[in-house]
Amino acid sequence: MLQEKHVYRKLFASTFYLSTFTFGGGYVIVALMKRKFVDELKWIDQDEMNDILALAQSSPGAVAINVCILIGYRIAGIRGALLAVLGTVLPPLIIITVISYFYASFRDNRFFIAILKGMQAGVAAIIFDVVISLVGGLLKKKELSAVLIMIGAFIAVFVFKVSPLYVIITCGLIGLLNFRASDPVGKAGESE
Question: pTM for the whole thing?
Fold first, then answer.
């Protein structure tokens, strides 16, 4: 029971800390969660983090919250999911409440505007890091189909401006077809 409380406390404290000091949206916190839960704590591995991110991105809602739900659930079940979400939601709720109270005072302040512009550049770098990490993971597996799906999805969204929703659904269907083609007689189900 003591070990269980330690996991709950660590999960809540980690998500609360990450959410408090993360500016720039869901993908930034996802990169930091990867460092915390995969690299540092080793509660999940990189492949599982990639799966969690894929599920979170293809589910409705904020990516950061979806990732927290999935990581929390994976680590400590329903309680873990609730604690991870609470740890992720509380800091922005508190910060936004305070900022909204004082916003009118500093919205035109050049110093404040300069800080926000600097933060935007940092956020772009962190998001780029997430992209490189995900692409690197795909390339390390040397799965040609995954690389082709990635390139096709990028072209569809960037060049042809196809809705990401349609791209995600299509990629999921292609992944399912690839799985069925590699396991035509259902061998994966027999091993369970």
Answer: 0.66
